[in-house]
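MODEL INPUT / OUTPUT PAIR
PAIR INDEX: 1
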Amino acid sequence: MAPPEPTPGSDTDTAPETDGRRRRGRHRRRALLDATLRVVARDGVGGVTQRAVAAEAGVAPSAVFYYFATVDDLVAAVLVDVNDRYLDALAAVPDGPGAAAEFAAVVAGTARTDRAQLVAEVELWVLAARRPALRPELERWDAGVRAAARRLTADPVAVEALVDVVNGHCLRALTGGPDADLLAIVRRVVG
């Protein structure tokens, strides 16, 4: 069975870029994802429309539906993109000495992103909690945090506590709470 054809401009599209069309397609798709995140930050998920995203990205409205079948598909792709970025950073945390500090640095960096971006990301997570079709992304997020936490401790209770620490830290940053000494918290949890 042949693999499915990649979406135009998708990151899984690995054909050679002989004429630059694929590269331009990837750049346009990236621009649409980034523009959507900015629209969510500014106007909320309800503000994501074909025209709003196209205007924010500086492209023709038809480009939105060339790369994404529906606005819901676009919003889902942004949630996946946000998760991919952070989960890749967590997966890169090395084992061994210094792992707790690296883990804490990644989590703190997640919460220290541009406040508008953090608001948009949390709004996307809340949307995923409301929409069953998007819930697997929440589960994938927790699983990725769990996998990184398991490199710090074998204690299953401590692993779950670290998942809660990470999720709570993002919410704390969103509400402007005091910047906690995350490394001290991680070290306390892992013992």
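PAIR INDEX: 2
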Amino acid sequence: MTRSQALALLSKYVKNEKMIAHCLASEAVMRAMADRLGEDIEKWGLAGLLHDLDVEFTAHDMSIHSMETARLLREHGIDEEIVEAVMLHNEDAAHGRQRTEKFHHALAAGETITGLITATALVYPDKNVQSVKTKSILKRMKEKAFAASVKRENIMECELAGIPLAEFADLALNAMQKMESNK
């Protein structure tokens, strides 16, 4: 599937602009992680872009979120490795299956850190990702009450993927800033 086909699929199922922005940010982070780790940039980017296809029509029900996405991805002939990573990014619907591969950990960490970075930007006076500093992300990471719904344990899976937290925060922030500046 080409990126333009993936964008069309995303726009078919996701209407909320903030969710689309999250998917685009997740794609950017996953592409940067793949580049850093010597992995398939297109495959990893596709996983980031399409991981939340079902979030609106499953009404954010975390017990089933990602299962419908997996079905849709299979219908479109998407690589089974991507399907598996997408299913496992939501541990609530994984039905006891654990993330075991670098790709699984990367998607869990990559899509989650986008929320922390966005929340960090929102406390800046200009509310702009361009103003965020890596040290602010690392500071907010330690503040459990800040963006409390962001699962810090998922972000920490960056280390299981092979990237230390401080480097990962910097990599993810740079990816999101580059994405924003290219709009």
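PAIR 2 NOTE: Residues 3-181 form a domain with the Hypothetical protein af1432 fold (CATH 1.10.3210).
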